[in-house]
Design goal:
The protein contains four helices and five strands; from the N terminus they run E-H-E-H-E-H-E-E-H. It has helices at 10-14, 30-45, 61-66, 93-103; strands at 2-4, 20-25, 51-56, 74-79, 82-88.
Length: 104
């Protein structure tokens, strides 16, 4: 299940026991809409192992700025509170799945 990432809840999610994947997106972004079903499917597949969240860059500009998000979609992978990997742009499900597996 995906969670909504906001400026207010990000720190607690990042500090949690499980790895965190954050999809930075916007409603008007075509490539974001392309990857959304893939991210949602992987969120279900890895439920209980990885926290998967979506962060709207227009509603959470502070977070986007903090991580230097200039292109969307940008997916950041966190482990132990630190960014360990990222993907920028639309990618294949296999590529996303490999990154999810690497977090475990």
């Amino acid at each position: 299940m995906e969670v909504t990432i906001t400026n207010e809840n990000f720190a607690s999610l990042k500090a949690g026991d499980l790895p965190l994947v954050v999809d930075f997106w916007a409603t008007w972004c075509g490539p974001c809409r392309m990857v959304a079903p893939i991210i949602a499917e992987l969120a279900e597949q890895y439920d209980g192992q990885i926290v998967v969240g979506k962060c709207d860059v227009e509603e959470n500009e502070d977070l986007a700025a903090e991580f230097g998000i200039r292109n969307i979609p940008t997916i950041l992978f966190f482990k132990n509170g630190e960014v360990v990997d990222k993907l920028i742009g639309a990618q294949s499900k296999d590529k996303f799945d490999a990154k999810f597996k690497a977090l475990l």
